[in-house]
Specification:
A four-stranded parallel β-sheet has the order 2-1-3-4, sandwiched between helices. The chain has a four-stranded parallel β-sheet with strand order 6-5-7-8, with helices on both faces. The chain is globular. It is built from ten helices and eight strands. Helix 2 crosses helix 5, helix 2 crosses helix 6 and helix 8 packs across helix 9. The protein has 283 residues and is an alpha/beta fold. It has two domains: 124 residues, Rossmann fold, CATH 3.40.50; 104 residues, Rossmann fold.
């Protein structure tokens, strides 16, 4: 006969949320949609911070030492820190949730070749594309089921509901953006390339790998923007907006702040689509 105290400890262990880590806030939304209260999510890049300048704090390294799974999304710091994360927690599974996705090139929407050293570098910003995020969601589901098989049915049901929401979101965004006549926008940072590709928009990027454009590149951006009657320059809080405002002032465009790293991913993507629609149709 099993002692009641032992049964109690087993029950408590089964009820303890699975400790997992993610790189950015949008991933937290997906893990929680699938795992619910059965996962405790550590987000490495918190609100207002940028993956481009990320370094883990000592507290985060301590928290990573207790994580069972680290869901990676493809941002560059993941490769830089992979060995050190593995050193503090050799048993932590590192899951590449972008595996199987054909990545676009970061320089594919550059106006001029200002970054020869980064030519052909993959664009990691897959999380702004609802259809690609179905691939990410599947990787999360598979890893959660492997780590916690007793909750397979709950995870699979949650995953199915999430996929339905992603398909519906895709339809909603198409219905909103199919109506716009002006389809080109400027972005300071190259965060919206997958979104633009998915919904037949054109993104012109100002910065190159975090670097401000030179005078020649800036002049070319302005020339192209005037020729295409661009009406909006998209910025985000994680980056300087000085060059973006220079371009906007030069072409008479509005500056629109959008956040690709918002935690409430579904609501944010609806906001992005509606905001871009209003900005592209203005004037």
């Amino acid at each position: 006969m099993v002692h009641p105290a032992v049964l109690h400890r087993v029950h408590e262990q089964n009820e303890t949320p699975l400790a997992v880590a993610v790189s950015i806030l949008p991933q937290k939304y997906f893990v929680e949609r699938i795992a619910g209260a059965h996962a405790s999510v550590l987000v490495l890049v918190g609100p207002g911070r940028s993956p481009a300048t990320f370094e883990p704090t000592p507290r985060q390294m301590t928290q990573l030492a207790r994580a069972r799974i680290y869901f990676r999304i493809g941002v560059p710091f993941e490769r830089v820190w992979a060995d050190r994360f593995r050193a503090v927690n050799p048993s932590m599974r590192q899951v590449d949730t972008h595996a199987g996705i054909r990545l676009r090139r970061l320089d594919s929407d550059r106006v001029l070749d200002r970054s020869d050293e980064h030519a052909g570098v993959a664009d990691p910003h897959i999380w702004v594309d609802p259809i690609l995020m179905k691939v990410v969601a599947r990787h999360i589901l598979d890893a959660m089921v492997e780590a916690d098989p007793q909750r397979r049915e709950a995870y699979e049901a949650n995953h199915s509901a999430l996929v339905s929401d992603l398909d519906l979101l895709d339809v909603e965004i198409r219905e909103v953006l199919d109506r716009v006549r002006s389809r080109t926008f400027i972005a300071y940072h190259s965060a919206w390339g997958y979104f633009a590709d998915r919904y037949n928009l054109n993104q012109i990027v100002i910065e190159s790998e975090g670097k401000e454009p030179g005078a020649k590149a800036l002049a070319e951006i302005v020339r192209l923007s005037v020729a295409e009657a661009v009406k909006v320059v998209v910025v985000q809080q994680q980056f300087s907006v000085r060059s973006a405002r220079t371009v906007a002032d030069a072409i008479g465009a509005d500056v629109l702040q959008l956040d690709p790293l918002a935690e409430d991913w579904l609501t944010n993507m609806r906001h992005v689509a509606q905001s871009l629609y209003l900005a592209l149709e203005s004037g």
